[in-house]
Amino acid sequence: MVGNQLIVSRHPGLSVVDIDHVSSYDFVPCRTHDGRSFRMFTMLDEFTRECLAIDVERRLNSENVLECLSDLFVRRGVPDHIIRSESGPEFTAKRVRDWLRRIEVKTLFIELGSSWENGYIESFNGKLRDELLNGEVFATLRSLFHDNVHYTV
User: Fold this and answer.
1) Which of 40, 48, 102, 105 could form an SS bridge with 28, CB 3.0 to 4.6 Å?
2) Which regions form coiled coils (predicted)?
3) How many domains does the chain divide into?
């Protein structure tokens, strides 16, 4: 970040070489039956396309991102990169950037409006929406968890 402007790093030639080398993350917005919004934080490994995390809350912010990442890194280890995340405030918050820098994770942000640069996670989120979220009616967030414990994308 320079001043108040985020520097967007581009590495179009970055090849994914192994498990946990490159991860992507994003948010999926949705609504329960009563019209109340919620968001899903999704993260996947770009080599295996394995979903590493889904966190669901009415509101998700940079603290939720940090909590999910720290839990994941304890379980799986720290990846070399987190790439192709959007440059939203939850991902670019100073606390998130500083924490990732301290544990030596390189961050790369896509340009605003260029979701095609985040293709793996966008594809996963599209399947999640098509195969689960659009096909079910959720009265509450609890029903989303309870009814879909064994759901896999």
Assistant:
1) 40
2) none
3) 1
